[in-house]
Write a structure and sequence with these properties.
The protein has about 350 residues and is α/β, with parallel strands linked by helices. The chain folds into two domains: about 80 residues, GMP Synthetase, Chain A, domain 3 (2-Layer Sandwich); about 250 residues, 3-Layer(aba) Sandwich (Rossmann fold), CATH 3.40.50. Helix content is about 40%, strand content about 20%. It is built from twelve helices and 13 strands. Strands 8-9-7-10-6-11-12-13 form an eight-stranded mixed sheet, sandwiched between helices. The longest helix has 24 residues. The N and C termini lie far apart (about 55 Å). The C terminus is likely disordered.
């Protein structure tokens, strides 16, 4: 066996000791090491992450570097980071769509900033390098066109609806199809039909993540979505105060009972005015992840009113940085959920 071949085997053996922090398996077992080569005293390889938004990619890279430097004869390590978003295979299997993950954003009550969170999460995930869609499933009160600064959508093509696009995100909303100044007075079956058509009649293309903004509460739209499409998981948005947390709890429990994994809880508008800590307490009580809190910031509201999500227009603000970190946590949790569904044992909260 050549010296180079032996070194490559030793490098791979060292990489097999490096654990992926979220999935709790080593990089070699997870098949995350690609294109390993040893040239003299230099080892080079690619680490294929499960999402471009991986919040721990710096830690993974440095751990791999230090492990390989322990191989006698290796003095330099060149690492390339790439990604291939993990997929919930039930989505393509049941819906015949090239969408890897469906993520519902829900709240127990209105007025907690759920749609604003959904819009900013979608933009932040796109900024990380993912392909993202944003569906407005709040059929009776669509807000995403305003929040994303979109006034209309492209004309249909071959009897298929073409989603609008803003900030790199594909967007579909009933707000594009009806008079925005007139209320929709629809019964449950009509709402069900509209949600189904947003999957069947829209040309979404290939997406790593679809963020679905649900109406507040635990009504027809939530149950229709949870029971008719394979949701990868649900995010619960709440304000810190007890009345909002109580409503959020009911929404969370609804998803648990229909066996939708809980990605985690987000506390929005956190700060002196509304208090803080309610979202974290809710997550701890239910044994689900706390994804983070977004500070109360008037610029978030101003950006929403003007169709300019704060993660795109003021990325250095505390609120934008919090939303970006939360988007990374969401992506990491989705990878964990998909890994668990593939037959590996990962603790996922699904049933209360």
């Amino acid at each position: 066996m050549s010296d180079t071949k032996q070194l490559e085997e030793q490098v791979m053996a060292r990489l097999a000791t490096v654990m992926e922090p979220e999935l709790h398996r080593d990089l070699v077992t997870l098949k995350m090491i690609r294109d390993l080569k040893v040239d003299g005293d230099t080892a080079s390889f690619t680490i294929m992450l499960t999402t471009p938004a991986c919040p721990l990619k710096g830690q993974i890279e440095e751990s791999a570097r230090q492990a390989v430097l322990q191989v006698p004869g290796i003095k330099e390590v060149r690492i390339k980071l790439d990604s291939s978003v993990s997929a919930d295979n039930r989505v393509s299997g049941r819906l015949n769509l090239d969408i890897k993950n469906l993520i519902a954003v829900s709240s127990g009550k209105g007025g907690v900033g759920k749609s604003t969170i959904a819009a900013n999460l979608a933009v932040a995930l796109h900024q990380s390098g993912a392909s993202v869609g944003l569906m407005d499933a709040d059929i009776l009160g669509p807000n995403l066109p305003m929040l994303m600064g979109i006034e209309g959508m492209p004309p249909p093509r071959e009897d298929r609806l073409i989603p609008a696009e803003a900030y790199g995100v594909k967007v579909m909303s009933m707000g594009f199809l009806v008079d925005p100044d007139r209320p929709l007075i629809w019964r449950g079956p009509m709402v069900h039909g509209a949600i189904r058509q947003f999957f069947s009649d829209v040309e979404w293309g290939q997406l790593d993540y679809m963020i679905i903004d649900l109406p507040p509460g635990t009504g027809d739209a939530q149950l229709t979505l949870a029971q008719s499409v394979p949701l990868t998981g649900a995010i619960i948005v709440t304000q810190p105060q007890d009345v909002a947390v109580g409503d959020a709890l009911r929404g969370l429990v609804m998803f648990e009972h229909v066996r939708v994994p809980i990605i985690g809880v987000i506390e929005n508008m956190s700060g002196d005015f509304f208090g803080s800590g309610g979202g974290e307490k809710l997550a701890a009580r239910q044994g689900v992840p706390f994804l983070g809190s977004v500070p109360l910031d008037p610029q978030v509201r101003i950006g929403g009113d003007s169709g300019k999500p704060i993660v795109a227009t003021n990325p250095d603000s505390p609120a934008a940085q919090a939303l970006t970190r939360i988007a990374q946590e969401v992506a990491a949790r989705v990878s964990v959920i998909n890994f668990g569904q593939s037959g590996n044992v990962i603790p996922i909260k699904t049933i209360g």
